[in-house]
Design brief:
Largest sheet: none
Radius of gyration: 16 Å
Number of strands: 0
Number of domains: 2
Structural class: mainly alpha
Strand content: under 5%
Order of helices and strands: HHHH
Distance between the termini: 32 Å
Shape: globular
Length: about 100
Amino acid sequence: TITPDRGKEFAQHSKITNALGGIPFYFPAPHHPWERGTNENTNGLLREYFPKSMDITDTPDNVIQEKVLELNKRPRKCLNWKTPYEVYYEKVLHLT
């Protein structure tokens, strides 16, 4: 399933569901962030690089991509201490 924020950018979620072969969307109840734990945790990790007060419109794409790669190579408890990169690409990284 896909569990997005409740923003208007997902108003046409059915098109995404169809394009991805029927993967369903789950919309949590308003004001229930605990129903989207991984999403909330990832937002917190992003805030380490991009604080809420920061306007990222002038941030170069390569800087954003660099930070995304850093986060994807960070071990996560919910992935049994594997990185998202390892899980997605089925590769073992040797991080020390």
